Amino acid sequence: MFIGEGPGAEEDRTGLPFVGRAGDLLTRIIEAIDLRRDQVYIANIVKCRPPNNRDPEAAEVAACRHYLEAQIDTIAPRVLVALGRVAAQTLLGNDTPIGKMRGNWFEVRGVPTMVTYHPAALLRNSGLKRPTWEDMQAVRDRLRGGSEAG
Description:
Layout: E1 2-4, H1 9-14, H2 20-32, E2 42-44, H3 58-75, E3 80-83, H4 85-92, H5 98-101, E4 105-108, E5 111-116, H6 119-124, H7 129-143
Parallel strand pairs: 1-2, 1-3, 3-5
Antiparallel strand pairs: 4-5
């Protein structure tokens, strides 16, 4: 299960998560770890697009939290991937910078959780592609029953 921040304009228009350039990149990332997009569940921290694409406010996150938790509990994923700072900080309940969290395993609702960069960040900064690939290799290995260390 991959969890992002919230829908953007294109997601609002289509009603589908992660479409457009960031969605295309996420699909390629998923395929690079030997999965298909239809084999993963994609959700967002908030279910509505914040005005002007700003970060969701605490009240907006709180209003959507129970829905996200129900999604996690219903899907019962083997692994969660927090895509970006907002998703990671919300899921983990901290304000740690993403650079310090990414690449590490955490636990959310009893599910091993990997933090990595958001695909949109990779489009803005190609230097984030290598660490993201390393994170995704760890996810792939965990799903294959390989390395449990983080």
